[in-house]
Amino acid sequence: MRCDTATNGARSDHTAVRVLDVDPDLAAGLDRPRREAAADRLLARSVGASKGTLPDKALHVTGPNGLGLLIVEGVIARELLLGDNVSVELLGAGDVVQGSRADDPTRLLRSTVRWTVIEPARFAVLDSAFAAELSAYPELTSALLGRTVERAHRVGVTHAIAQLTGVDRRLLALFWHLAERWGHVSHAGVEIPLRLPHRIVAQLIGARRPSVSTALTQLTSRGRLARRVDGGWVLYGEPVGTPTGEVRRVVRLRRRRVPIERDAVATPVDRAPRGSARA
Predict the structure, then answer these.
(1) Is the per-residue pLDDT at 190 higher than 90?
(2) Phi, psi values for residue 197, rounded to 5°
(3) Which pLDDT belongs to residue 250?
């Protein structure tokens, strides 16, 4: 994709993309004639972002009446800084993000939002022109709203995980939660090709980095988890609360696109500890 110089922390591509081509799941509720018509009408500008910090102002490129940026590929972390604590939300393909407006003077409890690009990302800019065209397709509006509800549920699950006792329990629950969206079943186990810094993992479960490192070592020695050579993870066995044999079906049904380059997904896995269970 040819991109011009960086603007507000994102690279802009002047070529319009057909939103339903880059996100076909969005049109699941349309019959074929309406889907084809919508694909021709729903166009958006494409912007990209490399790994690193993404300025909050970069998310305001849609204008005051735009819907936001639709993540087409990549992984983004939305970090909320409150006092000396940081909580984080992971976002990926299919999510719509907007500027945080954390500096709104009407807020009584002030916080700061920091956006971090974990894996190189590409967005479709859902500006006011796109919103106007979208009005002819209420099925797509409903689909976007459904994704917002699902996103809120994921945030709630992450918050619940952070309340579990024991850092090892939190980590194991977190990785199975991430596997629902980003995991895939292989001969090695349930693989999660997310290269998450320990800082992000610690923020996701409300723990300190040293405690996370210790708990990861314990889970590895117990045969529940292994690190892939590319920085991803492999889960073994069954998650707590899931009937035996359900893992493959659930991961297959719930998984969207894995927003990681193919080479990383195919990278060999570290040898599992002896005696570990395999999914």
Answers:
(1) yes
(2) -60, 150
(3) 56
Q: Are 198 and 163 in contact (CB under 8 A)?
A: no
Residues 44 and 144 in one domain: yes
Given a contact cutoff of 8 angstroms between Cβ atoms, the answer to whether 13 and 44 are in contact is no
Domain that holds residue 179: 167-265
What's the confidence (pLDDT) of residue 55?
A: 84
Q: If you search the block for the tokens 């006092």, which residue do you land on?
A: 83
Q: What is the predicted pLDDT for the residue at 256?
A: 45
Looking at 140, 161, 182, which one is the last position of a domain? 161
Quote the CA–CA distance of 146 and 143 in Å, as a whole number: 5
Between 84 and 4, the higher pLDDT residue: 84
The b-or-e profile of 126-153 (16+ CB within 10 A means b, else e) is bbebbbebbeebeebeebbeebeeebee
Over residues 203-214, the mean pLDDT reads 94
Domain boundary among 138, 161, 184: 161
Output phi, psi for 117, to 5 deg: -85, 110
Q: How high is the pLDDT of residue 57? A: 79
Burial of 105 (0-12, 13-18, 19+ CB in 10 A): exposed
Q: What pTM was computed for the model?
A: 0.80
Both 47 and 151 in one domain: the answer is yes
